[in-house]
Design brief:
73 residues, 30% strand
């Protein structure tokens, strides 16, 4: 049986819950799902804490500033 992290109320742009951050490996902290790693065996969710989400957003913004044209999703 898979146990899901406890949901933490928030008014932020992301839905945070208690769990482990894949990036800094902190446990029992507020994390949000930011993606998934998939293989032939299935998928594993990637969750990041607030600090790592902010760092990833900053990295993204800097990368976008360096691009001549913005990619379309």
């Amino acid at each position: 049986m898979t146990e899901f992290p406890e949901t933490v109320p928030t008014d932020a742009a992301y839905q945070y819950e208690l769990g482990s951050c894949f990036r800094c490996r902190r446990k029992g902290t507020q994390v949000t799902r930011i993606g998934e790693v998939t293989s032939g065996d299935g998928g594993t969710p990637l969750c990041a804490c607030r600090e790592c989400v902010q760092e990833l957003l900053t990295m993204h913004e800097r990368a976008m500033e360096r691009m001549e044209t913005r990619p379309r999703a």
